[in-house]
Amino acid sequence: MPGTPLGSHLLLGQPAMTLSAPDVTSLAVANPGMLVQSIDWLAIAPPLIAALAAIGVLLADLFLPAGKKKALGRLTAGGLALALIALLPLARGNTRSTFCLRNVAGATDNPLCSYVADHFALVFQLLALGGALIAALLSVHTVDEERLPGGEYWFLLLSSAAGAALLPASRDLATLVIALEVASLPAFALVALRRDGRGAEAALKFFLSSVTATAVMLLGISFVYAATGSLHLAAVADGLGHAPAQLKPLAEAGAALTLVGFAFKVAAVPFHFWLPDTYTGAPVPVAGYLSVVGKAAGLSGLVLATTIAFRPYGHTWGLALAVLAALTMTAGNVAALRQRGNTAHSAVRLLAWSSIGQAGYLLVPLAAAGYAGTDQPIGATAAYALIYGVVNLGAFAVVAAVSRRAGSRLDDYAGLFARRRWTALAMAFFLLCLAGLPPGVVGLFGKVVVFRAAVDAGLGWLAVVMAVNVVIALYYYLLWTAKLFAPAERVVTDGRLPTPLAATLGVTAVVAAVLSVAPQLVLQVAGGSLF
């Protein structure tokens, strides 16, 4: 009977060893850790709790009477809060890992693990689960007022959050793709739940672009696997470094296609075309969720693929990402300048283009990491993502509050201070944070950290492009801020905000204010390596 290729070349990029079927059986008996392993339940608790909460909401929806369906929103918020609490014991301890290949030649001292709860994973899990919790609070009134199917809505939100929380802890390409799709597939349906017709169109554009990105990514991963014989990120890096000359073109093509797939998810130019229409067609809380949690999921996958798996090609993808960052921030900010105040949904569309511009800033430290050959700048990306997540969700909360009575045009914000003083002050603060102006000090420090990462890596030209874009963005952020305090022709009372919406505004404003007073609470993430 012919031998079966099996062994270390599939795991560590080493020369193949041929084992017959009896050899495989004896090896498994001698090394039971290859087939049977324990699970670190504490390490996987955050995404697991979110997934179990999704199942619980789906089952509860079957048995709760129609008059008690509102309890599903509270159950969703409680599940996400519990998942966030599960991060605390992980933050205080050492790095934990599970689903590892042990007792394999060459992997005894450094086992290859599919799930690692290190500092990087915890920071992005905090962003994913915290962003999902804020989006859930923001959604309570939207589900009622727009008569969305509550059970389906909350189940899809929790499922997407579980995938987004799983992704930053994934350490093999298969788990990365699965987690990314678990985060993306429910998001398609969330966008389509809107009943006015725009939701279906937006969901279709989102779906087609995402499916295309996934197909390209899977093709790239198949090339990488063929060239290296492994899907584990660390083993892929080792395999790429020792790949035979005849396989290098295949490996390089696979790495490029994989990164193109992740660029779709991050909405980097030229793969950004789906985002503005998707945001304007989705319910406002879903647009806010996608702008923060969806972007964080794609960004964390891009970081893992580049800094770990494709580390041997660092200088190449570093330059490519620097160019993408420059194009993305420029396209996003210039397009935001073109938004007119009397155009329908111009407020959400401006935030959508602003989100693309912010994605360009987030790519700068990642490009610096490839150029400098170290993962030190990744902390700047994580810190800026946390800052952006808080203030952007706060801005979407204000949009949700204003659109309940007035509309979603920029002109609808004229004189908001006379109608809703605290809402206008909160929006002004969020916009100044996004612009990087006092008193939004945390936004300023975030941009400084990103700028410094580019300069330290020798990417002076990218730092100049970023500085120009920051000035461009000042115009439309300040123009929107000025509208808030413009004299109102007549003062109309909008009524009280729903409690969950008011709580969302309060929480995001307080967190942004605290970070502006003590920016070191989040900027300390940028001070060292996260891996």
From TrEMBL:
The chain crosses the membrane at residues 44-64, 71-91, 120-141, 153-170, 176-194, 206-233, 253-275, 287-310, 316-338, 350-372, 378-402, 422-446, 458-480, 501-522. It is an enzyme of class 7 (translocase). It is found in: Cell membrane; Endomembrane system; Membrane. Keywords: Cell membrane, Membrane, NAD, Quinone, Translocase, Transmembrane, Transmembrane helix, Transport. Its EC number is 7.1.1.-. Residues 170-472 form the NADH:quinone oxidoreductase/Mrp antiporter transmembrane domain. Its main location: membrane. It is a multi-pass membrane protein. Coiled coil: none annotated. It catalyses: a quinone + NADH + 5 H(+)(in) = a quinol + NAD(+) + 4 H(+)(out). It holds the Pfam family Proton_antipo_M. Belongs to the complex I subunit 2 family. NDH-1 is composed of 14 different subunits. Subunits NuoA, H, J, K, L, M, N constitute the membrane sector of the complex. NDH-1 shuttles electrons from NADH, via FMN and iron-sulfur (Fe-S) centers, to quinones in the respiratory chain. The immediate electron acceptor for the enzyme in this species is believed to be a menaquinone. Couples the redox reaction to proton translocation (for every two electrons transferred, four hydrogen ions are translocated across the cytoplasmic membrane), and thus conserves the redox energy in a proton gradient. This is NADH-quinone oxidoreductase subunit N. It comes from Kitasatospora cystarginea.
